[in-house]
Amino acid sequence: MANLKELSKKEEILSGGHRLCAGCGASIVVRQVLSALDDPVVVANATGCLEVATTIYPYTSWKSSFIHNAFENAAATISGTEAMFKSLKRQGKIDKEIKFIAFGGDGGTYDIGLQSLSGALERGHNFVYVCYDNEGYMNTGIQRSSATPRGAWTTTTPAGKVIPGKAQYHKNLTEIVAAHNIPYVAQANPWRWNDLIEKARKAFYTDGPAFINVLSPCPRGWRFDSKDTVKISKLAVQTNFWPLYEVENGVWKLNYRPKERKPIKEWMEAQGRYRHLFRSENEHIIKEIQEEIDKNWEKLLVKCGEK
Amino acid sequence: MSDIKKLGWKEIPEGGLIAKAGNSATYETGSWRSVRPVRDEEKCTNCLICWVYCPDCSILVSDGKIKGIDYSHCKGCGICATECPVKAIKMINEKEFTD
Ligand code: SF4
Ligand code: SF4
Question: Is CB count within 10 Å lower at the N or C end of chain B?
Answer without folding.
Answer: C
